[in-house]
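Honest question from a wet-lab person: if I give you the sequences of every part of a complex, can you actually get the arrangement of the whole thing, not just the pieces? Trying it with mine:
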Amino acid sequence: EADIYQTPRYLVIGTGKKITLECSQTMGHDKMYWYQQDPGMELHLIHYSYGVNSTEKGDLSSESTVSRIRTEHFPLTLESARPSHTSQYLCASSPRDNSGNTIYFGEGSWLTVV
Amino acid sequence: AQSVAQPEDQVNVAEGNPLTVKCTYSVSGNPYLFWYVQYPNRGLQFLLKYITGDNLVKGSYGFEAEFNKSQTSFHLKKPSALVSDSALYFCAVRDSALTGGGNKLTFGTGTQLKVEL
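Yes, you can. This is the full assembly:
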């Protein structure tokens, strides 16, 4: 089992609210990622980080933002939630130094914006 | 550019029968290949990976996958399917020739496996 934790697991929130999805890992991994996934569909990389103070946009454009102030923590923030943001958000991490390293996923955060 | 294809949206198999979930890939260098499984309302769980060496890779829960360089495939297999294997399966690839910002994992679109009694 991977030691990567996401909170909240489920969130229902009104349009226009600010939300932060938390992600923490205790494996000391340098790389962290956020993926967005609609139910039963493919994964889209929206943000990644190679280490503290490093953040990059992923392949899918997202209105969310991320920060990496500590190695173990990679929160995702939506300043003003909209119904189009309804989706599952998956956080993941991996060691930095080898391309063959496995990416480990958290359990996901289900966001519903009403 | 790296890409991966899972040609079947859904695979149905009877319990006790062998199962195969197909995956093909495209990379410019050597591939690093991964299989993940996702149960409903859960994150992805790592099953197995191929980096180098033996073409037959064994993983969790009795699954295995065979790397075939000439066919650019990495099909997931299990000799005897269980109802509890029913889930969404993702193949993923990373190109060893890409570094830095290009060194990301590309996922397939997923294959829903349904194992029935």
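Two things worth pointing out. Chain B touches chain A at residues 32, 34, 36, 41-46, 49, 51-52, 88, 90, 94, 96, 101, 103-105, 107-110, 112 (CB under 8 Å). Residues 48 and 61 of chain B are 10 Å apart (CA to CA).
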